[in-house]
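@channel anyone free to eyeball this complex?
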Amino acid sequence: MGRAGGRGRGVRAAGERARPAARRARHRCRQTAVAYLFLAPSLAFFAVFLLLPLLFAVLLSLSRWAGFDLADIRPAGVDNFAALFARGSSFLTPVLTNTLLYALGTVALALTGAVLVAHCITRLRFQGFWRTLYFLPIVTTVVAVGNVWKYMYEPGGLVNGVLNALGLRSVAFLQDPATALPSVVVVQAWASLGSAILILTAGLKAVPHSYYEAAELDGAGPFTVFTRITLPLLRPSLLFVCVTQFITGLQSFALIIVMTGEGGPGDATNVAALEMYQRAFKYGDWGSASAAALVLFVLVLVITLAQLWLFRRKGADG
Amino acid sequence: MKRRRVLAGLAGAAASAAGCGAPGRGGGGRPGDPVVLTLLSHYATDPLKSALQRVVDEWNAAHDRVHVRTTAVRFQDLLTTLMVRQAAGQGADIIHPYSLWAGQLAQAGVVRPAPSGDAARIERGFARPAVRAASVRGRPLGYPTEVQSYALYYNKRLLRAAGLAGPPRTWRELEETAYRTARRDRHGNTLVQGFGLSRTDDSTVVNQTLALLASRGGSFLHPDGTHSALDSPAGRAVFALERRLIDRGASDPGIDLMKAFPAGRVAMAVSGAWWTGSLKQTMGRDYRDVGVAPVPGPAPGNRGTVTTGFLLGVNAKSGHQREAWEFLRWLNDEVVPAGPGAGRAAAVRATRMSVLQMSVGTMTGRTGDMRALLAAGGDQNLGPFVDALDYATPEPNGPRAQKAKALLRKNIEEMWTGRHPPDAAVRNAVRQIDQELSR
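replying in thread with the prediction:
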């Protein structure tokens, strides 16, 4: 009995201990449910506008579809991917190589230009005016930018006019496959300079002035100050600009459509996003367009992760 | 079957979420309201837009039960608009596609063959190349409307200035005329192109090459449409001719032909009939310098060219098939007096579409109408185009025709820019096109 009573007391005690635990668990459960309830609208938004389209793209990449009737979707396995990389297909070369060169060229030019300009702007009066001036191409439509540059590049245009005035022969910038892609890269870099300058200027302003004073006391020259203080402390801003510009460069094709039409001459300025657009909306080949989109997605992901890893490693080493 | 149903279900859910509804048409409106047919075309600018609207207004005024509403986009946006609207269930009842897309649209179930009565009318009333351009697997999909055959435009003033009395009749004369009329400044900038080669659009790149190819007896695809016939003596000769013209400074693909010719900076160019109307409008009095001749062949009298066109068909998803075909018959098959707007040709009897097309400087595939309207005061420069309908080869319009054309265009441009020699460009084009057609 005593043992039984003791056991009963023990059970009661355990029950009393368990009750607050169960209450806590129930409370946690309720909190979680409420949290999910609050998250539901945004989760639903992501599911509807991100996850489902993504799943649809994956499904289409493994199918054949002309883009008209959903009942006409036919399974195709990995045929679309195989066709993209088949011998003689232009997707790997020149389309993907053009895409990489376009993105790389744009980032290299825009980043170098932006660092130099931002560095100079922070040393000038009327900084707001200069920032606005460099930001203007961002608020101008791509069509206007592309058309103006296209006329400038034409045989009788401004650029060739300058070359002719210097006694040089005209260059068919957008007609020669050797110069067409670099010519568009220059325009894309010029057009994206503004946002890069804005971010880098903010980054430069965040660098504590005491570092520069200490460097000056130590007798460091402007070049040393720039490479040893400014650039390392600007790394987060540089990383952001680099990643976003690269992603934009890999995905953009509007400027190319305006300046060279369908990625010509030949395939000289054809890039993955343009190829994807043409396959889907012009040739009604949604399967291969979706396969190309997934390949581009993987490429963007790998390059972005590589950039993050590289900058983090540099950060740890530095 | 089950797998397909699951796929379609998944796709349906995903596509609905992504904003694409299944195509379909609601009835809408109250009982007794007129049926409203929508018509999507590329007649987005004048004079085409007003010309089409005039006949549609005439129909609407005379018919209480069925009304037609036109919507138009630029030709460059037509295929994309057509596809996107169809996928979203917003396809127009009547569509006006380029005949090149006929196979693609038929395969996707957007257009079906015309009803037997209309098919018989089409086959009876139109020139053979026009019917073939508007047909898939031998069955017309709709009424051929605007028909383009290709001929040689030349600037009489520039030819006279080079001491030439008339247009070339052979390839050899074409080449000599091109070299004699071309001029450049000391910096190498082109002042006058002898023979206009241009990257402006598909028709300026590909159709002029295909017209030259046909004039030499060659063709782009084999008759069954399954593989390319470009790798032939004729194909290699056309590529070599274009390359020579560029190398020797008679052609400059960097120049916009559509602007340079009206400005008197191109001596000769191959283009479609529609250009006469456009040139007349842009050149004003200078249009009298423009002449048109058949595309030269290897020897005098050798003839051959290519023809393309548009067709007016009924959307397979339209809920008003009968009304739509009734309107198309009224527009394309009823013979009426040309009317006061046709000037000296007012008394000539022709279909409404023939009068419409002639009024904007282009033509239909009804050669009888065209000849009657031309004889009664039409632009005589259209004569060679009408004649060409007797011997022209229609542009292939299989399910992958647009892609095959794009591949040909890219290879022509690779050859023009010196990336590939002509023979290699021909081989490359054939390999890529055959691969595409085999999919």
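from a first look: Chain A touches chain B through 50 residues (CB under 8 Å).
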